[in-house]
Amino acid sequence: MNVQTEQAPATERHPDAQTITKVTHYTDRLFSFRVTRPQSLRFRSGEFVMIGLIGDNGKPLLRAYSIASPSWDEELEFYSIKVPDGPLTSKLQNIKVGDDIILKTKPVGTLVTDALIPGKRLFMLSTGTGFAPFASLTRDPEVYEKFDEVIVTHTCRDVAELDYSKQLAESLPDDPLIGELVGGKLHYYPTTTRETSDNMGRITTLIESGKLFEDLGIETLNPETDRVMLCGSMDFNTDLRKILEDRGFEEGANSKPATFVLEKAFVGE
Ligand code: A2P
């Protein structure tokens, strides 16, 4: 007997779909996740891509996310805020290993060493999820080849919000690939503004008072020797840009490298 079975049409996978391989929740506001890396994706550490989910209307809902993994990693990592009523992150925070996300393979951004002229020290100053591009850059051997000292600061409201950067900074000296390069060159300086910790205060205040440099036992900022990358909220970027420009730093771009670069920490929703 010839039985014809009617097959339901297989749901077609989106051409830009990638699979979640790991999800880590840090607080009720912060999580990170790893996804498979499309073979065609080449990027410079510090750049961002558009990622997201298929929305209720069947169309991709995409936002800019800094890639938090270094360019040599075979997977991609992202560090995200969770906003309860945010169109994307309210859904993205529920992703699980094996789920698909949409990822567009066109990396862009100015937080790249190519947008800076050569220097001796590299400062990477961040707040909140603005640490993400620095999670990529601090794992990139090129950074330690180009600079003698690397100073990365991360300011959050509470101690728990520093977990992601702290775990990363603590793991770097033992990293089989870059541990040796990092040794002695990397200074990690976490600060909190609303909960007591070893280093308290906004980084803007700690730079202006000189406490950051005193605590680390290093010279203050100098445009002759130092290069700076900023990534945080709009207000943070504006305030720090002024501090840097007052000290003689000039903003750079891919087309015109200079002594500092900045990018807004993306995705507030
Ligand atoms: P504060 O607690 O004093 O506002 P958020 O979680 O709101 O994105 O903030 C992340 C961190 O960035 C907080 O510790 C916050 O400090 C700090 N911050 C916010 N605005 C500025 C700014 N203009 N300059 C320096 N730090 C800032």
Task: Briefly characterize the structure.
The chain is of the alpha/beta class. It has 8 helices and 11 strands. The mean pLDDT is 94.
Notes on the protein architecture:
This protein is an alpha/beta fold and 269 residues long. The chain has 8 helices and 11 strands. It folds into 2 domains: 2-103, Beta Barrel (Elongation Factor Tu (Ef-tu), domain 3); 113-262, Rossmann fold. The strands form 2 sheets. A 6-stranded antiparallel sheet has the order 4-3-6-1-2-5. Strand 1 and strand 2 (30-36) form a beta hairpin.
Order of helical and strand elements: EEEEEHEEHHEHHEHHEHE
Q: What would you give as the CATH superfamily of the largest domain?
A: Nucleotide-binding domain of ferredoxin-NADP reductase (FNR) module
Q: What is the level-2 CATH architecture name of the largest domain?
A: 3-Layer(aba) Sandwich
Bound heterogens, unique: adenosine-2'-5'-diphosphate
Mean pLDDT: 94
Q: How is the largest sheet built, in terms of strand order?
A: 4-3-6-1-2-5
What is the tally of helical segments?
A: 8
Backbone CA Rg: 20 Å
In the CATH scheme, the class of the largest domain would be: Alpha Beta
Give the assembly state of these chains.
single chain
The number of E-state strands comes to 11
Tell me the count of domains: 2
Largest sheet, strands/sense/barrel? 6 strands, antiparallel
